[in-house]
Amino acid sequence: MLPLCALQGGRLDGLGTTRHFRHGLLTVAIIVVIVSAVADTAQAQIYSWRDAAGRLVLSNRPKDPNALTVGVGRSGAVRTTASLRPRTAGRYDALIEHHAAAVGVRPDLVRAVIQVESAYNPRAVSSVGAQGLMQLMPATADELGVTDPFDPDQNIRGGVTYLHQLLDRYDGNEELALAAYNAGPGAVARYGNQIPPYREIQQFLGRIRRQTEVTTVSGAASGIYKSFDVVGDRRVPRYSNVRPPDRDPQAAERPRPTP
Question: Which of 27, 78, 138, 193 is the most buried (most CB within 10 A)?
Answer without folding.
Answer: 193
